[in-house]
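Table S2 (text version). Query chain:
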Amino acid sequence: MSDRKLFAAAMLTLAMIATPLPAQAADTATYDRLLSRYVVASSDGINRVRYAAWKASADDVRALNAYVASLERDRPSRMTRDEQLAHWINLYNAVTLQIILENYPVRSIRDIRSQTLDPRGLIGPWRTQRVTVEGRRLTLDQIENSILRRAFNEPRIHYAINCASIGCPNLAARAWRAGTMDADLTAAARAYINHPRGVSIDAEGQLRVSTIYRWFADDFGGDATGVLTHVRRYASPELQRRLAGAAAISNYGYDWALNGAN
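Corresponding structure-token output:
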């Protein structure tokens, strides 16, 4: 399915949420258990995943696969907006975990090649078709860019989806839920922006931000001014003080190393 058709389907999904019907089959309790067991908070503020231990447990690998299958059986077109957000974020993150476990040990997710001839898919697995939801065969790239970004107009989703990398915002240690979506998105934005891999200022006052803000500049206002406005909204008082005189971004950076725990 083309991105244009996928976008039209995503917009139809949003149009149908006025009269939601029961549509969720996903086993969130199982996913919570898996995340709490294998996602560990490091002293440096980065959540890491115990991939080796997870892969060594055939039962827990099967449990993750079963959870993804349950998300595929869900009906997001019949969900509320926040239920849809939780569905797609959880699906994106769970499939990413699947991919790493299937290929582990690996130094970076970018070492895993997409199963496609599309030149854009030569680095990383994002353009491999992985799941089917309501009859649509989807890649991670489509979930992120054709559904989450286009249909929801919510820049904070970049702090919720995780690409198994040190430079990425943290993988949450529990499933995303509709009931706490807004508060959780805000907490994730604050956690990332106030961590050096999100925003940092050196002794000379040079501002360095995550390359996420360049890759997805349109989601953050379209230029450096928009990015700075967004960042200030979630910055701590100390970071706001240091950003007071910033008018330009000096550098971007991103660490693609796997977010694995030792």
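Notes on Table S2: The first strand starts at residue 39 and ends at 41. The two ends are 40 Å apart (CA to CA).
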